[in-house]
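During the second year of the project, the team shifted from modelling isolated chains to modelling whole assemblies. The rationale, set out in the original proposal, was that interfaces cannot be judged from single-chain predictions alone. As a representative example for this report, we include one of the complexes processed in the last quarter. Its constituent sequences, exactly as entered into the pipeline, are reproduced here:
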Amino acid sequence: GESVGLHLPTLSVQEGDNSIINCAYSNSASDYFIWYKQESGKGPQFIIDIRSNMDKRQGQRVTVLLNKTVKHLSLQIAATQPGDSAVYFCAENIEGSYIPTFGRGTSLIVHP
Amino acid sequence: GAGVSQSPRYKVAKRGQDVALRCDPISGHVSLFWYQQALGQGPEFLTYFQNEAQLDKSGLPSDRFFAERPEGSVSTLKIQRTQQEDSAVYLCASSPDYGGITYEQYFGPGTRLTVT
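Output from the structure prediction step:
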């Protein structure tokens, strides 16, 4: 299930289940979005990106959905594995700006 | 291949001390970013270099923070007279692009700074 902890929202799933991580972005002028995965003690790692002229993009086991009407982004992970356990951040870029704004992050815990 | 490296990985400083954090970006990457990440939060932008030019330092929280990249490769983030609120993970990221085509950034492992 999903809960909001003191620091990070947390999503707990069983290995093999599909995971959906949500992100509400703030700026309607944002036109580029990235999902990052951050494991403990490491820097964020690029997963997948999407531009505002798209509403869906698929990668390997991951899909990003963009709903510009409600300024919502989601990351779907298929057949979640223990190695997917990490904190996931969405980041948004305003057109022409090289500076991303990161969202709060969601902690994904995958139980074997 | 080698990714972005940062040193030291951990730094404990007494309040009032100066610290210097180093970032070695991926070779040939034009853009370099510094971020501050507090516990449980997303990275927050500090400053941006394009080659040796510091194009944006709007995120530096005070004039105690100073960054340089004199030869357009290695960068150093210096914090003078550290305060407890400076305790955080400092992340460096590099990108091969000027930001016009892709905004993908490659992050280092970070330096965890603890000010006591």
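Chain A is about 0% helix and 55% strand. Residues 25 and 71 of chain A are 6 Å apart (CA to CA).
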